[in-house]
Structure prediction request, 600 residues.
Amino acid sequence: MEKRPKSLETVKHVILVLSGKGGVGKSSVTTQLALTLSSQGYRVGVLDIDLTGPSIPRMFGLEDSKVHQSHSGWVPVQYDASGNLQVMSLGFLLNDRGNSVVWRGPKKTAMVKQFLADVHWGNLDYLLIDTPPGTSDEHIAIAEELRHMNNVDGAVIVTTPQLVSVADVRKEISFCEKVNFKILGIVENMSGFVCPHCAECTNIFSSGGGAALAEQLKLPYLGNVPIDPTFNELVENQIELRKETSQTLVDLYKKCNLYVIFERITNEIITKSSA
Amino acid sequence: MIAVQQQTELIPKPQLAAPEPEHCPGPESEKAGQADACAGCPNQSICESLPKGPDPDIEIITKKLSSIKHKILVLSGKGGVGKSTFTSMLSWALAADQDLEVGAMDLDICGPSLPKMLGAEGETIHSSNSGWSPVYVSDNLGMMSIAFMLPDPNSAIIWRGNKKNGLIKQFLKDVDWGDLDYLVVDTPPGTSDEHLSVTTYMKDSGIDGALVVTTPQEVALLDVRKEIDFCRKAGIKVLGLVENMSGFVCPNCHGESKIFKPTTGGGAKLAKEMGIKFFGSVPLDPRIGRSCDSGESFLDSYPDSPACTAILSVVDALRDEIGDI
Prediction:
């Protein structure tokens, strides 16, 4: 019997952000994709299914927000009054930010299912799903839930340049093949760092691993994103910055150096996902 | 159901009639078949009839691990902060002392990195009467990882929690470590099945404690806080906190920059806030990544680098904390 998650029926495109390796920037890529899409006028939702380490609330400066219950389901946290950017994460359901969620597999599976079934997104152009590292319970659950949906465009794979990371990312690609997620492309994050003192670019985590992987596996390569401490700073200080300048994170992000890079990546993803 | 890679079953599992429900106490638990969630579950009668009581395997594991003097877990709620890197550094550093026997165990089943970092990629495991023999990367440093059992390094292990628990148990039960001074256990990110299993199975044999690794940004500290909370809940002593990737010295102009800014005070402040020891900060060094990619010891290759000094002082602090020196 086919059962489709009701909450996703009003979503035009679903895109997953995956990586076998942790800490490569899945959440930061998800955030930047969401901000770029939102700046282009799309209605965007972000679903964080990293249950034991949810980072999305912090990335959007929404750590104190709570999810509300309505008759049609959970109402995601609205970034601002326009409702063009909505966020859902387990982080919003915890009482204290330091609390750990120590759950075994079946409970995580149930939570992911609930996220897909009960969240009332409304009409969305894009739903970005941020995932935990690995290929385990959360991933199996999300793949099972999405398997009958016809609005799943595919997955964006994030890696860092080192071989150690690329090795784990290969596993994630093999996972995508097994569950029939189309791979929209590979992003190489943390690719080089430009010294603010002398403008010399150092490849802290070497470079080129993502491009080589894409070429080897004949997958689209979306580009490399350098390490930019100003983006990190923007995320960490966004609440004060928003108060000072009364601009939203989307506006502030547009001034970031990374915006240009993500604009290109996003456009490529949009072309691929509407094809 | 998605086709999950079928490996030979490691432990006999109860044949359940349906997947476990959300609040399942676990078919192996003492409350199996009797908890609130069991009412109406199609598995109830199956679970109820399973043998109860403490897991007999725990006794075997305790006996097996009794020849290991110190057992250290390397933990972090966050991924990619350098757990495996630090595990490999710690192992190399300890093994530099010829009198010590060191073992390193990789419990990250979905993304095993340790074999590559210790230069043991592509090795296979040999089994003998006394169990599986670890792979020796130097005279006194043995290691064990799931990666050695995979036919193809690219294939993903798409396993649910239960199956991972079975493998972890097997690792603890069947690996023949022999007499070890140190066993360093590398873990995956998060606070889930692997973490619960390893702490449950190893508890009786006595874990010295956990070394928690973080990076300076608040996004990482947030998850690390959860891991420390987990250690408290699980009764694991936190030996100390290490801050990795703190600061970067440009090889060109020697100007220092904070790539991952400690806007909320970084690891030192977190350690203070949580009342745990702070072992120090290790700076970013591109050569660390390169050494890990080629499976060499960074400590041997670049003994004069500031990162090397920092790592060794952390190792000293750690040994001091567990009362070894």
Notes: The radius of gyration of chain B is 21 Å. Residues 104 and 184 of chain B are 5 Å apart (CA to CA).
